Amino acid sequence: MNELYSGLADIFEVDSSSIKPETRLEELGWDSLAMVSTLALFDEIYGKPVGVDKLKACQTIADIEALAAG
Amino acid sequence: MPGMGVKAVGARINAIATYLPQTVLANDALAEAFEQSWSADRIFEKTGIAERRIAAPDETALDLGVGAVRRLIESGSDLQSIDFLIFCSQAADYILPPSACILQDRAGLPRSIGALDINVGCAGYVYGLALASGLIASGAARTVLLVTADTYSKFIHPRDRSVRTLFGDGAAASLIEASDRGAIGPFVFGTDGRGADRLIVESGGARLPRSASTAAEHADDFGNVRARDNLFMDGGAVMSFTLREIPQMWAELKRRAGLEDGDFDQVLLHQANRFMLDALVKKLKLDPGKVPYFFEKIGNTVASSIPFALEDAVARGLISPGSCVGMLGFGVGLSWAGCVARF
């Protein structure tokens, strides 16, 4: 389980097994609080900020993961 | 001034008093208002805020400011010798005159003072300290009363979770005096007006007068309801900007001051909320023991958030004569400002 997945599990308050690449963010309760927490998590793990508009466009966990590579 | 044999006059924060309105808005009431879409526990766990104070319908930021000034007087400060009053708020009583002029009268301050309003948000306390110490260094004033006061609750739509959970109303009064002991500065400032629309009350000014159209409610992607008459905050954008700019500001402040992390006794961040401060403490690699969190009972009080934390840190003995304190404010503008204050 990578750091991003375990961090997202904490943010959404779900078991880490619920965080899969294909998991849709809206199923997890993707709201403004979750978004700001994800921004902070992303910055902490990758040491670089992610553009908020890019994060808003994400639909799935895989989309968030792709931002790390981008 | 350099080369003129005149030593710049130092300034010092000599006294501070805060004021809160009576009404308490706790998380269980919010959870009910949000139809349990966010539970009271979740709001606390994420924001670190259990309750906020809300100004009465007929109570303005100016009224809260008067309350803070009265508390300052009650605690023994003599305000008859002040030279200048700075009132920092984003909720003036009137378009004109400035609230500072009315505050002079309401608080019984001398008629010999200069008085003006400044409209700055969460960076406002550091801005106020910069102006106060500048007035003192120039010889224009020897004692400056800085009052910060805001009532964001009046801008907030009751069904906008993104801001109603965070902001609380409150005010603070600080007395800044010329002093050989203590110092305020250096300062670092930053402004990025491209982000002006990320934290905004759109209507009610000259650009967009209030109308039936600006009062029309709409729901955003997250189900938060607001009108253009209400406070809008793009929390993600504000978080992004904070994580981008504040580390640079902190590094620049330390460079200008010739200080290292270990030289600071306390670092007072704008008291936004728990997730923001947790992220900043990690990012700036600060010692959590030196970074007070003071929002559990009052929420984010905008320009008053740092003085609330300061008053509490002084009361708990964390800041005392000789202490070196960093202060970092950031928010609406987008705007950020930091300084070092020696007590």
CATH level-two architecture of chain B:
3-Layer(aba) Sandwich
| DSSP strand content of chain A | under 5%
Distance between the termini of chain B: 23 Å
Inertia-based shape of chain A: globular
Structural classification of chain A: mainly alpha
According to CATH, what is the topology of chain B?
Peroxisomal Thiolase, Chain A, domain 1
Overall tally of structural domains of chain B: 1
* Helix percentage range of chain A: 55-70%
Number of helices of chain B: 9
Q: Helix/strand/pairing class of chain B, anyone?
A: alpha+beta
Helix/strand order of chain B: EEHHEHEHEHEHEEEEEEHEHHEE
Averaged pLDDT of chain B: 95
Describe the largest sheet of chain A. none
Largest sheet descriptor of chain B: 5 strands, mixed
Compute the separation of the termini of chain A in Å: 21 Å
Whole-number radius of gyration of chain A? 11 Å
